[in-house]
Amino acid sequence: MTLTEPEPRTAVATHCPYCALQCGMSVTAGGGAGAEVAPRQFPTNAGGLCQKGWTAGSLLTSPARLTTPLVRLDGELRPASWDAALGLIAGKLTEIQARHGKDAAAVFGGGGLTNEKSYLLGKFARVALGTSQVDYNGRFCMSSAAAAGNRAFGLDRGLPFPLTDLADADVVLLVGANPAETMPPLVKHLEQARSLGGLIVADPRRTPTAARANLHLTPSPGKDLALALGILHALVTEIGVDQSYIDERTRGFSAVWRIASRWWPERAERVTGVSAADQCTVAAKLANARNAYILTARGAEQHATGVDTVSAWINLALALGLPGKPGSGFGCLTGQGNGQGGREHGQKADQLPGYRKIDDPAAREHVARVWGVDPAEIPGPGRSAYELLDALGTADGPRALLVFGSNPVVSAPHSARIADLMSTVELLVCADLVLSETSALADVVLPVTQWAEEDGTMTNLEGRVLLRKRAFDPPPGVRTDLDVLAGLATRLGQPAERFPTDAETVFAELCAASKGGVADYSGISYDRLRAGEALYWPVPEATHPGTPRMFLDRFAHPDGKARFVPVEYTGPAEPPDTEFPLQATTGRVLQHYQSGAQTRLVDELTEAVPEAFVEVHPDTAARAGLADGDWARIASRRGETIARVRCVPSMGIDLVFLPFHFPGAQRANLLTNPALDPTSGMPEFKVCAVKLSIVDGA
User: Between vectors from CA 144 to CA 212 and to CA 292, what angle results, nearest 5°?
Assistant: First the structure.
């Protein structure tokens, strides 16, 4: 008998499918075995992976994968051919728009989609459908930070410097950030600051990140803006600002100081609960540091005043002279895998590719020329994400919704209402990997490829554009999102060449559309990325090396100066009262990601955290008749959820915490407040008034 040599196994260098660190990993393909992943050296993760990254390979062979289109017949989702499914969708869209107008069709995207998908999705909405009703779940993630960055610096790039710069910092202030759970490999970049006594965390909870800090500030939820004002007051009155920087590189400090002058630290202490002494300590540490950074994340941003809150921390950073200074700076920690690129190329209601404003005539002219359409045919701004979802099925709202890469039934605030509205539309279509909670409501479900089954680019939290390479063939019957959009577009009467299906071809068009824009990718190519070049946008020419550090010479406003923005403290949109005496805040845990649709399919992760829980102080639990391990009912004005009690002595007595990864009756977003920031459209996820009680019969 002759033995044959085993089929060789090839390791493909790629990136993790989860957060915006986009950790470097290798995926092993071939040999007939299942997918295996291993960390590789890359600046953001330096050879490490978190538990989610280590287990990401199991998603590729999950038995829950969808492999055939599903169409709802007699109330049930049943297998159908691709031709039948796409034909049904195109026919219904045409019929609905003929009866109700172009804006009767809506598109909802995701911050995990590749740049190519984000770009083509926005183009599809505006050209193939002619609708203004397009937005994405990144509105729930980075929109407040983006708006604050735009008005202060003239543009938004989450980190305007490489993440590795943090490793040389003496002081790092993290506001509402918990990277030890949400992006663990980042923590190693904070070790020098920690060793020098300069790691400061502002968070209402003693998170794993806060537990590592040299100083933990515990402001009440929704009161970070008052804390920033108190620290700025201490800086001005006790230490002094960087006056030469303020004079030379900024505008508007006096208007900011008129507000901050009324926020002496003792007043801020009464509002926030953070001692005046700690506020003064933070001001001194930041002012005396050789290199210092202030970084915000969702805890500061997911509020009805999120833009102003981020602006308050930017004001502090500008007073210290940090932005645009080598070795120091201000930044925001982007959450979703392509949270940066996803908001740059047109799936956001008010934007065109290159981070252009959709109501700018010059922007419309440029993009229309690339698309081969009349600028007048491009619709104007549409509704922001929650407003779009909240309008579904209403008299002037969308009657059809196409969802790509998102699960709003779990992730949207006031999620019971959103699920009800989705159930009433005339057509709900989901392109998905698995039957998520949103897909389960759909009229048509389209099975699409995932991360290691397709080529595409991502833009990580530093603004670095990365090539995520195909390692596996997708299962038979599964198509890429680009194929789906092209198939629908041609059935809606578009020429085939207008919607290419090859990712590299789409990227080249994206680069042309972005040329001259704020986020200029026009000098980037797949060849440069394959060659391993580290390309941070803007990259305006094929020979340009990229821009890893922004603002070193000037900011992006026409005069080159940053703007102080005066902001007033108003507090949470829904304070506690006698009926709902507690405050609830939400967030992520290490083992799960976003709505959990993917991570809940990984046995190792679900075994670690199988169900929703509520962290609560033992005394607060006891007053509600609850003990550790009991099932609790948590109710707000919008609904109620159930979760397993975890008694945590470090929790504030008026605070509870719930993770938002779980479906059904365990959805944290059954509680959350859809009050929106007037600038960004960000809902107030991070604080709402609730009460605790026993679950009957539990």
Answer: 40
DSSP class of residue 3 equals: P
Cα–Cα distance between 654 and 204 in angstroms, integer?
A: 11
User: Using an 8 Å Cβ cutoff, are 632 and 626 in contact?
Assistant: yes
Among 297, 610, 593, smallest CA distance to 451 is for: 593
- Sheet with 105-109, edge to edge strand ranges: 76-79, 70-73, 444-447, 427-432, 400-404, 105-109, 134-136
CA distance 218 to 104: 46
DSSP codes joined into one string, 493-547: T--GGGS---HHHHHHHHHHHHTTSSS--TT--HHHHHTT--EESP--STT----
- From 15, 66, 65, select the one nearest 37 (Cα to Cα): 15
Q: Is the dihedral of CA 672, 676, 681, 682 positive or negative?
A: negative
Token readout for 24 is 């470097």
How far apart (Å, rounded) are the C-alpha atoms in residues 119 and 506?
A: 8
590-608 residue pLDDT tens: 999 999 899 999 999 999 9
CA 282 to chain centre: 28
The answer to whether 664 and 291 have CB atoms below 8 angstroms apart is no
Please work out, in degrees rounded to the nearest 5, the angle formed at the alpha carbon of residue 309 by the alpha carbons of 336 and 145.
30
- Residue 659 three-state SS: strand
Q: How many residues does the chain have?
A: 698
**In sequence order, which ranges of 516-663 are alpha helices (DSSP H)?**
526-530, 603-608, 618-623
- Angle of CA points 54, 473, 46, to nearest 5°: 30
Look up the pTM and report it.
Answer: 0.96
CA 57, 59, 65, 69 dihedral sign is negative
Instruction: Locate 495 and state its tokens.
Output: 């020429």
Contact predicate 640/634, CB 8 Å: yes
Please give the structure tokens belonging to residue 444.
């048509």
Cα of 522 vs its chain's centroid, Å: 24
Among 535, 481, 490, smallest CA distance to 110 is for 481
Q: Which amino acid is residue 212, in one-letter code? A: R
Give all strands of the β-sheet with 36-39 in edge-to-edge order.
Answer: 10-15, 24-29, 36-39
- Confidence grade of residue 36 (pLDDT, cut at 50, 70, 90): confident
Query: What is the dihedral sign for C-alpha 473, 475, 477, 478?
Result: negative
Span 228-269, pLDDT tens digits: 999 999 999 999 999 999 999 999 999 999 999 999 999 999
The separation between CA 353 and the C-alpha centre of its own chain, rounded to angstroms, equals 18
For the record, the structure tokens of 174 come out as 């993290």
In DSSP terms, 428 is beta-bridged to 401
How far lies 387's CA from each of 319, 373, 412, 421, 426, in Å? 36, 28, 11, 12, 18
Whole-angstrom Cα distance, residue 395 to residue 99?
Answer: 12
User: pLDDT (tens digit, 9 = 90+) per residue, 297-350?
Assistant: 999 999 999 999 999 999 999 999 999 999 999 999 998 989 999 999 999 999
What is the C-alpha separation between 387 and 234, in angstroms, rounded? 39
Host H or E run for residue 144: helix 143-153
Report the chain's C-alpha Rg in angstroms.
Answer: 25
State both tokens at 625. Answer: 């008749």
Q: How does 360-397 read in b/e, with b if 16+ C-beta sit within 10 Å?
A: eeebbebbbebbebeeeebbeebbbbbbbbbbbbeeeb
DSSP E strand stretches across 23-74:
24-29, 36-39, 70-73
